[in-house]
Structures are given as C-alpha cells and as structure tokens.
Amino acid sequence: MKHDPIASGKRKSVNLSIDTGIVAAAREAGLNLSQISEAALCDAARKAQAEKWHEENKAWVEANNAWVERNGLPLEKYRLF
Q1: Assessment of whether the complete model's pTM goes beyond 0.85
Q2: d(CA 41, CA 57)
Q3: Interval 59-81: pLDDT, tens
Q4: How far apart are CA 52 and CA 40, in angstroms?
Q5: DSSP per-residue string spanning 24-57
Q6: pLDDT tens digit string along 12-68?
Q7: Which residues of 16-32 are buried (b: 16+ CB within 10 A; e: fewer)?
C-alpha cells in the first residue's frame, strides 16, 4: 500500500450527521460509510492544502513565470522537444 502523507494510520471515532436517505441508500448498496467518508475528507484536505500553497506562493510563481518570459528557460537549447 502506498504511503499517504496526510493519513496517520490511526483511527478515531467521530460523530457525523448525515442525511438519513443517503445513509439508507449507501447501506442498501453495501457501501462502507467510514471508508468513503475518509476518502472524501482526505481529498478535501488535499485540495485545501493545494489551494493554500498556491495562495501562499502566488507571488513567487508569478515572479518566476515573468523571469522565464523575459529570459527564457536556462537550458532551453538542450531540450529535445
């Protein structure tokens, strides 16, 4: 199994309020609510971390892109594509 830097491997019981119709449909379909909830929360956490990184590094990315536009890529003459 691939290591997930967000996951600790430990489990904690939590209380969630989920629409009863959704719970009934998931159970009827044989879905594991814990696994699906964990996967959805992990995905949401990754997206939030990425958005935060992009916001915190926006000025650097823009400055780097501007430098490349002015100067070109440093080793561009060696590119094969």
Answers
A1: no
A2: 24
A3: 999 999 999 999 998 888 888 87
A4: 18
A5: HHHHHTT--HHHHHHHHHHHHHHHHHHHHHHHHT
A6: 999 999 999 999 999 999 999 999 999 999 999 999 999 999 999 999 999 999 999
A7: eeeeeeeeeeeeeeeee
User: What gap in Å lies between CA 64 and CA 77, rounded to an integer?
Assistant: 19
pLDDT of residue 1: 47
Return d(Cα 81, Cα 75) in angstroms, integer. Answer: 12
Q: Which of 6, 1, 2, 3 is nearest to 44 (CA)?
A: 6
Structure tokens at 53: 């990184």
